[in-house]
Amino acid sequence: MSTVIRDARGERVDATPRRADTSQREWPDRHEMMPPPVAAGRVLRAAKPMPAQWPDEMPEYSWPPLPDAERHARAPRRAELPANDPVAPPVTGRGPVRPAPGPARRVQPESDLLEPDHRAEAPTIASLEWTIPDAAEPRGPVNDPSPSRLSYRLNRLWLTPMVRHFVRIGLPVMLIAAFAGGWFSQEENRTALVTWVEGVKTTIQNQPMFEVSSMDVQARSPEVAEGVAQMLGVSFPVSSWDLDLGALRARAEELDAVERAWLQVRTGGVLEVRVTERVPAMVWRNAGGLDLVDATGHRVARLATRAARADLPLIAGDGAPEAIAEARALLASAAPILPRIRGLVRVGNRRWDVVLDRNQRIQLPATGAVPALELVVAMTEGAQQLLSRDVTVVDMRNPDRPTLRLTEDAMAELTRNRTLARGAPTR
Amino acid sequence: MTDLYQSQRAMRSMRSQAMQRGVIAVMDIGTHKVACLILKFGVSDGPREGSGVGAMAGQAAFRVIGAGTTCSRGVRFGEIAAMRETERAVRTALQNAQKMAQTRVDHAILTFSGGDLRSYGLEGLVELESERVSENDIAQVLDSCLVPDLGSGREVLHAQPVNFMLDHRSGLADPRGQAGRQLGCDMHLLSVDTDVVQNLVHCLKRCDVEVAGLAAASYVAGRSSLVEDEQELGAAAIDMGGGTTSLSIFIKGHMVFSDAVRLGGDHITGDIAKGLQIPYSTAERIKTFYGGLHATGQDDRQRIEIGGDSGDWDKDRRTVTRSELIGIMRPRMAEILEEVRARLDIAGFDHLPSQQIVLTGGGSQVPGLDGMASRILGPQVRLGRPIRVPGLPQAATGPEYAAIVGLCQFAAHPQDEWWDFDIPAQRFAARPLKRAMKWFRDNW
Lengths: 427, 444
Description:
The complex is a heterodimer of chains A (427) and B (444). With 427 residues, chain A is of the alpha+beta class.
């Protein structure tokens, strides 16, 4: 139960007497251990109530006098009363208003000592309104803390792990998938997306920082550099995204003269190509003419005349470049007769012939060619002076049985000598 | 009897199933409060070997992951008086516990203190077939116990073998594998009113929860509040609840007697409410904050504002001294304790070697109870609190939670009961068809 005190204008007046707040006292007490006082069963320390604080003790007049605004607020005029406000009978006279029971008995008293004339025209009116809010509030059922059957069951359902996971993960995923699937099922949406992606891609690729505007080919010979540049056939400017360096490199290496190419897009939009050229090791005479081949037997370039690269040894015959390693070994072992060697001929893509000047020819076996040639060289270098003699062909095809073919004159001479030696008549 | 055997076995298998799934609820439906704890099993393997911590009676096997307590409604004397109201209270407690645990539970173990517990001691004796005691012999000796007439509408709640005798030797805990000729056993049987149990089971079923076990509150409160040596040497646990005060006597680790007095803390509150003309809730509050049993001079000076909601200024500002309050509480508490004393005398508690009495339950928190109880019950009285179990909220560690904490132990580490043993084989022999069916069920 509480009392609402309103002043004449219907505004609430704080009428609760202020006491020392016992509920806020420090606990435990210094003197005895008491549980903190609580509202329902509050312990009173003294038999008589605590002496009231200043609102009750305040004199009816105050000093210094209240400011005008405050004074008028506390002494409202009757004219301002709301029409339908229930008004208690006006309380006049000196002294504070004392409502009979209840704790709320503080009403701002009028101060006739200070303002006698003012009091005469606007006597203070205190309206006391006794309401019992507890009774006025609807007394429904006590707030039931228990969940209803439905909410209990829903709660249990929600706490079921499968349901929980489904709602928290499965359902959003399915929803997103459904929306995405519905959108993508439209043909124009798909094309629009592809177009948009392509547009964005083009825009990004055509940014100036990706532009390649020139090519720098570094090769030993300018012919090769020019050839490589032509071979690559890149038209500038071009975006570096459109350059397939691997393909370009393969294309550059298609050129016979190029052993290896190394490509890089340098800063400043330069496509740098560094070329390692093949080094010609021999001249290969074939049906089409003269070709330069490198140490691995790969064709390097066409040669116009043999004299242009007289420093390189000559090989001939089908399949000669494939056996170039053997050819090099043969040349190395034939060093003493090197000035006489005109070239090497691959016979039947199987074995080598060494062709010397004076139409001499050394026929070597398919296997074990180098020892056979070394044997011939030894016979030449030794006392026999084999190749200085009138021999056309030294046939080493069977290394166990070297055979010589002599010139006709030499043959005749040999026959004559043998006949003379035998004493037989010459024909 | 066989129905009960089957239903108890079904409950036990349900319990083991729930424990394999990992989560089970334990519920205490009391007169004053309904409490629910949710246990999670298999959280740890227990203390490390050599860590100096023992097996802790299986407590390490579980952890409390949810707790909910609510004011009980519709329960009087530990029995359901208004089913809908009780169902609401159970729902509240269950839902709070489930929210805290973030999981749902489908099985609950239940404890209650009503139902007019009656305790019987049974004896059985059989000749052994072989020279050593086998499982089958145990089943036979349990089966041979003569069951008294429990009365109509009553059922067995607990039937625990307490003691085994082999020839002239008694006090055997586990006679299996021992040589002998005659095997005897003592069994403690606790019977309860069937309807009370049926009501509780139905109430939980209405909350979509299956009952996976039942235990008497006096038994589980004794298990949690008596320490191990008290259980071994002999002690009585007195669980002072709201509507009933139940007592159980333990010796050699087993409960040998249990009974309940249909008086409790709510009666004290009722006395205060009637005596001081105040609402019941205020009386409860005043009892809880200022109650006592032993008045001193200080209490005469201490005034308690008892309030009121009448609107009458004088009535709403009444005060009483604490002495007056004590004067109201004391005779009722004395009456309760004297009733308990009478039950203990009937049980022959005087003849036990150790006469330790442990007071637990919410009613045991009244200041001065230990002094009063030692005058009425005997000199060796202490106030007991339940043991600590892992994960239990601080708010649920007081003596009013002795029963539910004991129920956690009961779930994790149950003592042997009669229905844990198989029906002896010769009973099956009489029903070969049923036996064949069982074989098919077991093997297919």
